[in-house]
Amino acid sequence: MNQPQEVSGLIAFSAGFLSFISPCVLPLFPSYLTYITGISFKELSEPQGRKLRGMTILHSLLFIMGFSSVFILMGASATYLGQILASYQEWIMKAGGILIIILGIHFTGLIQIPFLQMEKRFELRKKPLGFLGSFLVGVVFATGWTPCIGPILSTILIYASTSQKFSTGILLLTLYSMGLGVPFLLSSLAFNSFLFAFEWIKRYMRVITLISGIFLILVGTLILTDAFRSLSYYFYQLSSP
Question: How close are the terminal C-alpha atoms of the chain, in Å?
Answer without folding.
Answer: 27
